[in-house]
Amino acid sequence: MKLKGLGLFALGTVFGLEGIRLLSSKDAKKVYTYCTAGVLRVKDAVLDQVTTLQENCTDIYEDAKAINEERTKKEEDAGV
Amino acid sequence: MKYTVKHEGKNRVRIHLAMKRLSFREADIFEYYLKSFDEIREAKVYERTADAAIVYSGDRLRISDIIERFSFEDTEVPESVFECSGREMSAQYYDRIVTTVILHFGKRIILPFSLRRIWGTVKAAKYIWRGVKTLKNRHLQVEVLDALAITSAVLTGDYDTASNVMFLLKIGDTLEEWTHKRSVDNLARRMSLNIDKVWLMTEDGEVLTDSSSVACGDRVIVRMGNVIPFDGEVDSGEAMVNQASMTGESEPVNKSTGMSVFAGTVIEEGELTIRVTQTGGCGRFDRIVKMIEESEKLKSSLESRAERLADRLVPYTLLASGLTWLISRNITKAVSVLMVDYSCALKMAMPLSVLSAIKEASEHDITVKGGKFLEAVADADTIVFDKTGTITKAQPTVVKVISFNDEPEDELLRQAACLEEHFPHSVARAVVDAAFEKGLLHEEMHTNVEYIVAHGIASEIDGQKAVIGSYHFVFEDELVTIPDDKKEQFDSLPDEYSHLYFAKNGMLSACILIADPMRKETREVVERLREQGFEHIVMMTGDNEKTAAKIAAEAGITEYYAEVLPEDKAKFVEKAKAGGHRVIMVGDGINDSPALSVADAGIAISDGAQIARQIADITIASENLESLIALKKISILLMKRIRFNYKAIVGFNTTLIGLGIAGAMSPSTSAMLHNGSTVALGLKSMTSLLPEEKKEQSL
Predict the structure, then answer these.
(1) Is the pTM of this model over 0.80?
(2) Which residue of A43, A47, A55 is in closest CB contact with B51?
(3) Does the predicted interface ipTM exceed a cut of 0.90?
């Protein structure tokens, strides 16, 4: 028990002394940058997908409207 | 340019350019190019995918040909198209909304619960602070309810609910901001497309010049009722300038030699010669946007009722929650009442309804500055028209000049035009145009022009005092007399025309007969407006009684006022408002601006005076008065939709609460139903208000 406490204390000290410097080092910054770039790429890809989806939905909607227009026209013609 | 066809429908095709992505600028160029062809009825370019959806009429092969011949380099596009495209803004907001959605759901998958808890708590603080702030102002508004719901959710450890509520609120906020930005932008787009002319001071006197060719150091002259086009310093003159667009202060300030003036401010009285220190060009669009936003701020003291509908629910919800606790002594149940976020649904549905209504209005060439004006139009029972430019055609024409002093008619017309070209009024423009058509060019022959709004102009020509204007101005104010031997001729002037009197040295020199033919659609529009629920349709004009009576009868208007002064128009509007009426004023000149600003909704005609457009809440295109009918229809339907949304949201969610309290429905089912209904109503709110075929008819 005591040992574990001591170990944690030591770890904390080391982190306080070196860890923060490590986390704010140049190499670490590079890692952050790459991660962020990755996240942005994912976002971009999702946005692309959303736009494509929107385009396809519009296609379907417009075609559906055209079909119905045709139908109404045919019915009208038949009625006359 | 190379392309592939992605989808082929009836008279509609979606193509993909052989590129991965388009820049905003490229997308604008392509869209501008496509729209410039008559065969293409509609085109929408998606910059993100380099796709374009094209609706066409006629031959499909021709469309392929058009696209093949396209190239970015060879297409000439006016700079204003980019300045005003709004593509970037839409993309930004779109981006923001999608990011919010991704973050919301993404963090559930990626972040561990403990971190989400911290995130949620931190974000909750913002909303709680908002609620506290409104309480401090002694308002019981939706923000309080939001704050309570979020707080209680956080305190009871229900972080998912807290984050859901915040997520929907954020989407609602973004949409609201987008709505506002978009309507302001729409408006600015319209305004900035009007190419401005300014009076440039040159060695040969004043010359009317395109504002784009003015350089720093030039001197320009700005008169009453006009917007100062550039930042600069007063070179000479004195004026009262309304700087509301810069400072928000609505009282005009005095400007005299040496003082700075700002672009976008308006001269209310007087005249200034300004040495330009900064020319427009770039940033003109931004300036207009800023100007409109500022004037919006001045007006926002009275927020739209519809937007505040949700506030009414706050006390009831608090009460219901308290009662639940009293009866059941169960905190969770009491909190669950708070948690039904009426406000989220309302906040999503309302701005979406308003946004789509404003967008729909713009398809009819109507520009609306804000949702609350649509509300005013929907409620209005009185509509006041200024005759010139609204009931009648925007372009009155000179029929004849009758000389009273034996000078040739053309010479009199030339002198009259010389004076009138300084006056921003459609009748004045008619005189100038008539002189121009007859090839009567003139050098500036008069001295300083004095303005007297709506009545006329006074100045000096060759040392003689010259006045031009209405009967009231010329004969009653200026006490001009009619030459004795011409009295008979004066009495026999034809009544069917408006009369413009021109006098020199206190003696009548000429009467200019102006025909101001009624728009062909006026009668029908008046009739339909009456059907739409306008109890009072009023015409006001500065013209004489006989002309007014004739036009009113022709238009089917029973209530009219002739020989009206601008102040009287505003007074009439105020009186009608005091009498419990909701009043719309339709006008186009500077002289209408007082009335436009006091009316519940001021409607300006788009090619009227600048100040009228700036003050007006709604602008309609000049070609067609029928857009008034569309406007009223859209407004009424919008209000109907808002009321329906309100009822549906309140009713549905109250039922959910009831079922929840009774224990008949599990919380997760009710949450699903709640969110589903919110999204469905939001989507429904974006559909067109007017039925499709009607739209095509009026286009």
Answers:
(1) no
(2) A55
(3) no
